[in-house]
Amino acid sequence: MTKGLVNRILPFSSVDGPGNRTAIFLQGCNFNCSYCHNPETISLCCNCGACVLECHYNALTTENSKVIWNKRLCKSCDKCLQVCKRNSSPKAIYMTVDEVISEVNKFRVFISGITVSGGECTLQAEFLVELFREAKKLGLTCFIDTNGSIPLWKNKALIDIMDMAMVDLKSYNPLEHKGLTGMDNNVIIENIKHLSKLNKLYEVRTVIVPEVLDNEYNVDMTSKLIASLNPDIRYKIIKYRPIGVRTYMIKSYTPSDKVMSNLRSLAVKNGCRNITLI
Ligand code: SF4
Ligand code: SF4
């Protein structure tokens, strides 16, 4: 059975799709955005052992050149994440679909679905398909939270089994997008259009990062795109916040409420009817 590399499972989340959901964060991302607030999910662990020396609770050991995490001893102090220079985590573990489902089942009566996030969850598409197949048997809806960089229209099995997607459009300007992520935004925009056509686009997100991104242009163009597809698709406009961010990589600050409110007005003017500011 396919295994997924899981960074962590959050039993309850009300911000990762509709209703109360279990959020499953997979390890590994093909982007390395300077404002990422989960940088420990970006890379795969190379078992260098640097974090083992820093764990004061003996929750990390090295066996056969592999770093092993002992969940029972871990105090979640996150010291290991702070010392990792690779943007990884020694706490990411390979799990079978059955193991993830057994975790999810503990919260089944309190949730309406699961959302798989990352890292970039579509890099582990085969695992997603198998996981969603089993989650559906429990009557759960299945969402993905994606950077949109993998052409979903080429993966019919995933598109068919998942319910909906939340897609980040980090910049509408292809050059700015490339500077931030290493690739332009063509595939992301095509994914947005494709998902919308199938009624599987739940939300598009833009993070407002003052003095780093051309925020007004991005909201202007993204809201026009959403309005042209379906004005009722949710457009979530998110304040950059320096929490958990590698602040040595980025010089920015949290935009004011006034700036956010002006951006909302712009999106409304362009025809969006379902806007959330956070
Ligand atoms: S999590 Fe980071 S510091 Fe720890 S072993 Fe892996 S790569 Fe090294
Ligand atoms: S989070 Fe857990 S594994 Fe990491 S340093 Fe703290 S106790 Fe050790």
From TrEMBL:
Residues 37-65 form the 4Fe-4S ferredoxin-type domain. The keyword Oxidoreductase applies. PROSITE patterns: 4FE4S_FER_2, RADICAL_ACTIVATING, RADICAL_SAM. This is YjjW family glycine radical enzyme activase. InterPro entries: 4Fe4S_Fe-S-bd, Aldolase_TIM, BssD/PflA/YjjW, Organic_radical-activating, Organic_radical_activase, Radical_activat_CS, rSAM, rSAM_sf. Keywords: 4Fe-4S, Iron, Iron-sulfur, Metal-binding, Oxidoreductase, S-adenosyl-L-methionine. Residues 15-278 form the Radical SAM core domain. Its cofactor is [4Fe-4S] cluster. Belongs to the organic radical-activating enzymes family. Pfam families: Radical_SAM (PF04055). It comes from the Bacteria. PANTHER family: GLYCYL-RADICAL ENZYME ACTIVATING ENZYME YJJW-RELATED (PTHR30352:SF13), PYRUVATE FORMATE-LYASE-ACTIVATING ENZYME (PTHR30352). It catalyses: glycyl-[protein] + reduced [flavodoxin] + S-adenosyl-L-methionine = glycin-2-yl radical-[protein] + semiquinone [flavodoxin] + 5'-deoxyadenosine + L-methionine + H(+). GO terms for molecular function: 4 iron, 4 sulfur cluster binding; metal ion binding; oxidoreductase activity. It comes from Clostridium bovifaecis.
